[in-house]
Amino acid sequence: MSFTEKFTTLMARPGPDGVEKDDVPWWLRYAGRGLGTVGGFIAMFFGVWMCLTVYAECLFGGIIQMVAGGITIGIEAPCCCLCIGFIQDLSDRIEKRPYWNKALAYVIMALPPIIMCPGLSSIFGSGLIFTTGVVYGMMALGRKASSEDMRSAAVAADAAPTTRPTTMRSNLVANAQPISFTGAPLSDSNVKK
């Protein structure tokens, strides 16, 4: 495969075919890709920034944030990693997975740097990866129902008979006994001898 063929196949994503695989709007798909790409670069930059501190937790958090940013870029924009041969195969394999898998992976990758070294660089760098996971989570939920469908579902829920008793003597427990007052407890001074 020549370089130009490889480059055109990499740049043809996301979803170049005319067949819609799911009901996700095109702008949300591009928002997830763009946010993941930009967030990956920013996470890598701030990961280097975090590694310049003297704290060991921030050093490890920065390394984890740089790795998470690199993985995010490799998945979302494999055209940025032309020199790594297996990235295209990895990206294609992950692209066939459901959206909630990507959402969960991005959220899990973003949390350790924030937990290890809470600060603006970890929150902003890993926060963009976390936001990418939230966008993919919204894509996994799918479209909202139409207003007519929601209205008919609300009318059907209101018209459905209730199975709960609605009398004045309804109790949470069917065999509940009434509370009674038996008097003050007996003490040594109250006991008659």
From TrEMBL:
GO molecular function, one term: calcium channel activity
Cross-referenced InterPro entries: TVP18/Ca-channel_flower
Any one of the GO CC terms: endosome
Localization (cell): Cytoplasmic vesicle, Secretory vesicle, Synaptic vesicle membrane; Endosome; Presynaptic cell membrane
Membrane topology: Multi-pass membrane protein
Alphabetic keyword roster: Calcium, Calcium channel, Calcium transport, Cell projection, Cytoplasmic vesicle, Endocytosis, Endosome, Ion channel, Ion transport, Membrane, Transmembrane, Transmembrane helix, Transport
TM stretches of this protein: 35-56, 62-87, 99-116, 122-141
Single GO BP term: endocytosis
Keyword set includes Hydrolase: no
Database matches in Pfam families: Cg6151-P (PF10233)
Subunit structure: Homomultimer. Associates with the dally/ magu complex.
Family the entry assigns: Belongs to the calcium channel flower family.
Name of the protein this chain belongs to: Calcium channel flower
Gene: LOC108733077
